[in-house]
Design a protein that fits this description.
Helix content: 55-70%
Number of strands: 0
Order of helices and strands: HHHHHHH
Shape: rod-shaped
Strand content: under 5%
Largest sheet: none
Structural class: mainly alpha
Distance between the termini: 104 Å
Length: 186
């Protein structure tokens, strides 16, 4: 099986490998690149076989650095940055760390949303309860109709007889709204 080890085959001395792996001059001091080699030919193999080949490439790269480079390489410093499996572990830990950092803000947003939904639910439940009471519905309808009639009377300055006719047209009794009539008369 043939694997692309890239630049690693060009190095014969430890200092060359360590300089390459440090990426000095290219990245900031706190940034560490990962070095990943993948199987050369993907072809028509299964995903499981491809994963197995990736693991094999990681093993071969480390073996090449240990055995074929004079003095090996600084495995303590760079070993955790070589291979696809190390990259995967790093990305999973970063993701986990960011999830943990975002948890308090996410929880606060969820709690606020739950509070808002609970308030909406209470308000809607109250409205629903009011609609199940027929007398409450009738009272609300009468008050609304009286409000419209009062507004019309005040706008048109009509007399009590016209006001009474409007109420009867709406199916309301004059007796139910004596306070509105007094307001129109005065």
């Amino acid at each position: 099986m043939s694997f692309a080890l890239g630049h690693l085959k060009e190095f014969t001395e430890r200092w060359e490998v360590d300089t390459f792996l440090s990426a000095s001059g290219y990245l900031g001091d706190n940034i560490h690149p990962f070095f990943v080699a993948l199987p050369k030919d993907r072809g028509t193999i299964s995903n499981e076989e491809f994963r197995r080949q990736i693991c094999q490439v990681d093993i071969d790269v480390l073996r090449h650095l240990r055995d074929n480079v004079k003095g090996g390489f600084n495995e303590e410093k760079y070993g955790s940055y070589i291979g696809f499996s190390c990259l995967r572990k790093y990305l999973e830990s970063e993701l986990q760390k960011r999830y943990k950092e975002a948890t308090p803000a996410t929880l606060a947003l969820l709690e606020q949303r739950c509070t808002d939904v609970s308030m909406d639910l209470t308000r809607l439940d109250s409205k629903l309860q009011a609609t199940s009471d027929v007398s409450q519905l009738r009272r609300s309808a009468m008050l609304h109709a009286a409000s419209i009639c009062t507004h019309l009377v005040l706008q048109t300055q009509c007399n009590v007889l016209t006001f009474s006719f409007m109420l009867l047209t709406l199916g309301l009794e004059l007796i139910a709204f004596p306070f509105r009539i007094k307001a129109c008369i005065t």
